[in-house]
């Protein structure tokens, strides 16, 4: 997170990719990941050991400037994350994913920043993918 780089102040990345997000996009990503992780927690106890699930979430960005689609896929113990950002006209679109090894630390960092109110402040998020 580097507020001096507005409008693209948040750098995220995964294996072989990186992208810059606006603070608005980073907040939406954080909120969406938090919702998916909570839904997974709510359902994980009812899954059998070898059972898999897929959760999807589509949400409009603040001020109706585009759509963010998120997916969490895995089993009761391990899951991966994917996202597609489809912004409004004349803006760039993004798509990315994180491995199961990187998804949990990434989600924890995003949610910690969201809880601390620092998604738009000076906090660094990171996870190795």
Tell me about this structure.
It is a single chain. 29% of the residues lie in helices and 32% in strands. By secondary structure, it is α+β, with helices and mostly antiparallel strands. It has one domain (3-115): Transcriptional Coactivator Pc4, Chain A (Transcriptional Co-activator pc4, Chain A). The strands form two sheets. Strands 3-4-5-6 form a four-stranded antiparallel β-sheet. The chain has a two-stranded antiparallel sheet with strand order 1-2. Helix 1 packs across helix 2 (100-115). The protein starts with 9 loop residues before the first strand and ends in a 14-residue tail after the last helix.
Shape: globular
Number of domains: 1
> What characterizes the major β-sheet?
4 strands, antiparallel
- The fourth-level CATH homologous superfamily is Transcriptional Coactivator Pc4, Chain A
What is the count of helical runs?
Answer: 2
Biggest sheet: strand arrangement:
3-4-5-6
CATH class identity: Mainly Beta
CATH architecture: Roll
Distance between the termini: 18 Å
Q: What is the assembly state of the chains in this entry?
A: single chain
> Strand fraction band?
25-35%
CATH topology: Transcriptional Co-activator pc4, Chain A
What helical percentage do the residues reach?
25-40%
Low-confidence stretches: 120-129
For the secondary structure, the number of strands is 6
The overall pLDDT, averaged over residues, is 85
Helix/sheet category: alpha+beta
Order of helices and strands: EEHEEEEH
- CA radius of gyration is 14 Å
